[in-house]
Amino acid sequence: QSALTQPASVSGSPGQSITISCTGTSSDVGGYNYVSWYQQHPGKAPKLMIYEVSNRPSGVSNRFSGSKSGNTASLTISGLQAEDEADYYCSSYTSSSTPLFGGGTKLTVL
Amino acid sequence: QVQLVQSGSELKKPGASVKVSCKASGYTFTSYAMNWVRQAPGQGLEWMGWINTNTGNPTYAQGFTGRFVFSLDTSVSTAYLQISSLKAEDTAVYYCARDPYGVDIVATSDYWGQGTLVTVSS
After folding, report:
1. Residue contact A89–B105, C-beta within 8 A
2. I want to staple A37 with a disulfide (CB 3.0 to 4.6 A). Which of A50, A91, B16, B32 is the partner?
3. Between the CA of residue A1 and those of A24, A55, A100, B105, what are the distances in Å?
4. Which residues of B touch A40 (CB under 8 A)?
């Protein structure tokens, strides 16, 4: 299976909002509501930010939100802060009964 | 609180084997599946497979069959990843990560170990 498609990089200024897309197929993103988003700072383990398309784990800022339309899921970060600069990965449950990651997106806060 | 603590970095020669441990605490180990994820230097996350911590049954992703083995010691709440016949391209950080949906489905990872760097070099 090929990785889910994410933009290689996105950028935004502090206070702005950005959106990262994650495109798959009807066999993964489009077929299930098990889309997750992870944040990874350099040298650190990934951190779960969104699960089941739009749910935030306890302790995750409400500046992070998720959505899905068809085969594309999106992560939106509002009120961008310097600490949001990191790599972001999406993942989805698939028809193979396994998860599949996206290629990752590097977020730069200008 | 839930914690996954992995063993330290390893430097191995090609052809050798390595065993990475992942000790869980703060929850009932056998109630949640454990995923293994690889991240090669400068690359993205790659799901390697998972192990049912209740039955011990492992499932391997494509590309991770043959040389990769997942195992458990439930008496000490620890999962293991063993890689044999190491190659330079196995150089990566390996993560264990708990799946929150129990032991019958793997769809996400809510808690992650800190990662174990395995370096394969002659």
Report:
1. no
2. A50
3. 11, 26, 8, 18
4. 45
